[in-house]
Design goal:
Blueprint: E1 39-45, E2 52-59, E3 62-69, H1 73-84, H2 91-95
Antiparallel strand pairs: 1-2, 2-3
């Protein structure tokens, strides 16, 4: 099963975590990228807000951030470990990953 299709990527409230909604702290980019774009540059797990991952991508020479929220803490932790090993990979390629082994 691909990451984008994993049932735990959908929250109980119906919100789809994948692909993240991208935002930028840089006021220069006027376009907001959408979908599976960019290269994964960094990932961080929140220790203040549980079950959240923050992804940072490079897209068209700008840095953007997206958040993934989960209902399942184990899945969040497993995904964090997996994504740490995928720095430098495209977001589309990450969405294609087989994550059948997770939770």
């Amino acid at each position: 099963m691909q990451l984008r299709d994993h049932p735990l990527m959908t929250r109980k409230n119906g919100f789809q975590s994948w692909p993240p909604l991208w935002t930028s702290p840089d006021p220069a980019p006027t376009d907001k990228p959408q979908g599976e774009v960019g290269i994964l540059d960094e990932i961080d797990i929140s220790h203040l807000i549980e079950k959240k991952l923050f992804l940072f991508i490079i897209y068209r020479d700008h840095r953007y951030m997206g958040m993934l929220g989960f209902d399942d803490e184990t899945f969040c932790s497993q995904l964090y470990t997996l994504l740490k090993s995928k720095l430098g990979h495209s977001i589309r390629e990450i969405g294609d990953l087989d994550v059948s082994q997770l939770v």
